[in-house]
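Service request form, structural biology core

Requester: graduate student, group of Dr. S.
Request type: structure prediction, single chain
Budget code: on file
Notes: please return the result as structure tokens.

Sequence provided:
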Amino acid sequence: MRKAVLAIDSFKGCLTSAEAEAAAAEGIHAALPECEVVRIPVADGGEGMLDVLIAATHGKSIRVQAHGPLMELREACYGISGDGRTAFIEMAAISGLPLVAPEKRNPMLTTTFGTGELIRDALTRGCRDFIIGLGGSATNDAGLGMLQALGFRFLDKAGNTLGYGGRIMGEVDTVDTAAVHPLLGECTFVAACDVRNPFCGTDGAARVFAPQKGADTAMTEALDAAMRHLAAVICRSTGKDVSSCPGAGAAGGMGGSLSAFLDAGLKPGVQLLLETQHFAERIKDADLIITGEGKSDRQTVMGKVPYGILAEARKQGIPVILIAGSIEDTELLARAGFHGIFSIVPGPVALEEAMQPEFARMNIRRTVEQLCRIIR
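Core staff response, request fulfilled:
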């Protein structure tokens, strides 16, 4: 084997994409010292996207104070490209689920206001193009908080300005754009979605994801009904029907608001990252691509990083091997087209131990080395 490409997603809570690929590269070189190894850090719009885009564009990190999911002031980070034109924002960095203690998680209350504050800060620094990573949110407010931070006002039937959180969605009657930030008209937005769920309905944001954010059954039904109502208001206000739009349900409906109010394009996160890094060109003449993630299952073939890698590799006839810490639905993954599917875990082990960074690095290195010895 002369050329191998590594495009491995982060093992969430354990290793970054770059760290996982460094371990895999050690394994390749241990078995095949002369093999050229191309490392391409990847992400799907959630955790890790920011680091990948900053590195790919020779950009920089910006640290600011903004409001978290429960309107508490905290420090957050976003990126700006090397040319100063494009802002890279992971909404989870300021509106993410890990920022809310489990006992306080409530999508009726959590807001995306802080994400809007990051956009506003980037506007003042000269950014006019925005890539927003949608994934890992603590929110189900349909991005209304983000829009409020940018000057949008949402009014009830009596003309009163509404507050924050998912609880206001069902009360919105009118959208007031008189105080919207004047520079937004000069901007372009692209949303990197890690899911393709519609805005509302059986597969919509509330019914699929709200329970993960603290909603019980009654709250989930109420949120979905509110989103159906809000979709009608959005259509009346903007002329765009986001109710069944793929990706509109990402980040608790933020995808829908970005599309309707800021004319954002909704793209699978992995597709956006691969385009940014000129993936198709860099994998030319490769003999093998190794991809991976912390857990692989049927969700992998619904747009996660390994499936996006596989889709691009098949265009050039390059075999793809999938490695993961945990594997389910192996037959489904095999039918999708992966040439091999391997768990890096050597035997029964507690999850806490499996997620120790050094343990995971060692297992990735060992697994990849053994694979390469077979290939050799």
